[in-house]
Write a structure and sequence with these properties.
The protein is an alpha+beta fold. The protein has two helices and nine strands; from the N terminus they run αβββββββββα. It has a domain of 138 residues: Immunoglobulin-like (Sandwich). Strands 2, 4, 5, 7, 8 and 9 form a six-stranded mixed sheet that branches. A three-stranded antiparallel sheet has the order 1-3-6, with no helix packed on it. The longest helix has 32 residues. One of its GO terms (cellular component) is plasma membrane. Belongs to the NAR2 family. GO terms for molecular function: nitrate transmembrane transporter activity. It comes from Helianthus annuus (Common sunflower).
């Protein structure tokens, strides 16, 4: 009896989640393929490099229909190694609370096969290890399927992006010039002061 009540409670909890509009990542079928131009371990630079992404319906998955697919979003996602001790990047099975994929690379109506698109890595992308994931949405704007470039453990086909540190060569050169000017000015004022004191004496 207790086990029956527990099962009923879990079922009601799950149904409540669905009625609240929460979508669990674990409930989504992996019905899309996603391919990127990056290679395993490649290091790209934010604000300079770009990524070419191709995605579409995974033909190896049988008995699937894409009639309910209305929109596609392709996102740049943090790999587990770059999520450790960072709550603001934490993975959550509830997609409303999930913070794995924070950068949208593509957001358009669904097409069965997309030839590919090029995404320029934005300047605000931080240094981290990444993979790419796509979601398809229904009329209610809810995720109903996904695809990604890595395996389920998110341990292969990963690449790295090197973020902008806030310093550039021009800033470094300017700071050196200002420092040299300040030093020369100080030395110059010292000699002028010394010379004026000699003249007075």
């Amino acid at each position: 009896m207790k086990s029956f009540l527990l099962k009923v409670s879990l079922l009601l909890f799950f149904l409540l989640k669905i009625t609240n509009g929460d979508v669990l990542f674990s409930s989504l079928p992996r019905s899309l393929f996603v391919v990127v131009s990056t290679t395993e371990g490649q290091v790209l630079k934010a604000g300079e490099d770009n990524i070419t992404v191709t995605f579409g319906l995974n033909q190896t998955v049988t008995n699937q229909s894409d009639e309910s697919y209305k929109k596609v979003k392709v996102k740049l996602c943090y790999a587990p190694v770059s999520q450790m001790d960072r709550k603001w990047r934490k993975t959550n099975d509830n997609l409303k609370k999930d913070k794995t994929c924070q950068f949208t690379m593509y957001n358009k109506p669904y097409e069965r096969n997309v030839e590919g698109f090029k995404w320029d890595i934005e300047k605000d992308v931080p240094t981290a290890t990444y993979f790419v994931r796509s979601y398809v949405y229904n009329d209610a704007d809810e995720e109903i399927a996904y695809g990604q470039t890595t395996n389920d453990k998110k341990s292969d086909n990963l690449f790295m992006i090197e973020g902008i540190s806030g310093r550039s060569m021009s800033i470094d050169i300017a700071s050196i010039c200002f420092s040299a000017f300040a030093l020369l000015s100080l030395v110059g004022f010292f000699f002028i002061e010394k010379r004026q004191s000699k003249v007075k004496s």
